[in-house]
Amino acid sequence: MNALPSLYISHGSPMTALHPGKVGERLTALASALPKPKAIVIATAHWLAHSPTVGGAAHPETIHDFYGFPRELFDIRYPAPGAPAVAAQVMDLLDRAGLAPTLDAAHGLDHGAWVPLRLLYPHADVPVVPLSIQPQLGPAHHYAIGEALAPLREQGVLVIGSGSITHNLHDFRAGYSDEREAPYVRPFINWIEQKMTDGDVSALLDYRRQAPFAERAHPTDEHFLPLYVALGAAGEAFKAQRIDAGVDLGFLAMDIYRFDTAKAAVTAQ
């Protein structure tokens, strides 16, 4: 069995669940192109903890971690089972990498997890293990988390980072729209794509200094850090495929990245 790719998904606002648009089309197509995984480990920008925390619930609840949205969003449930045995594997891999993980046997699925997973696997029939991020520890730490989880891909486990390729919510008040795109979005996402194509991990890890408009695209890191989990899980010899899912509201770029190991990518062609 070839290793599964790892994925980085821009999950957008909770409204993506009701109006999936282009990202919904892209995720549906992506799911149809992949073998069905035996489980999913998803690092989500909406679960923050001081150390890597692994969700070990057998039946994780759907968390509605937002307010001010339509009632029908709060009625949505994503009843995917958990995977306690996979969670135990994640704990072991992270522990052996010296990353001091902790287990939360009750944590559910926040909208950074269930919104994109509902578009990938609408029948909620793939077990899910959520994973926290550590916003104070930066890109290299999250890349190391991904590296530690890489062996899971050989076992049919899909490793996903869920965040947003650009995420500056201050721009809700800036007057941007589908007709008036924020000027920093294209330079930033184009730089990321070029460095991915070049395989320049060192530049990507140093994005806050090197990428154009990095602090404008990400005033804080938490929605970008899951990208490094997915990137690290692909290994040093990776092939990155950018899947363009548009720009919502003129400032939330919805890029998806698929990461394959280079050898697996050659075999698949």
What tags apply to this protein structure?
269 residues, alpha/beta, Protocatechuate 4,5-dioxygenase, Chain B, six-stranded mixed sheet, two-stranded parallel sheet, 11 helices, 10 strands, 36% helix, globular, disordered C terminus
Give an account of the 3D structure.
- The structure is a single chain.
- The protein is an alpha/beta fold and about 270 residues long.
- It has helices at about 20-35, 70-75, 85-95, 110-120, 140-150, 185-200, 200-205, 205-210, 215, 225-235, 260-269; strands spanning about 5-10, 40-50, 55, 100-105, 130-135, 155-165, 240-245, 245-250, 250-255, 255-260.
- The strands form three sheets. The chain has a six-stranded mixed sheet with strand order 5-2-6-1-10-7, with helices on both faces. Strands 3-4 form a two-stranded parallel sheet.
- The longest helix is centred in the last third of the chain and has 14 residues, at about 185-200.
- The relative contact order is 0.22.
- One of its GO terms (molecular function) is ferrous iron binding.
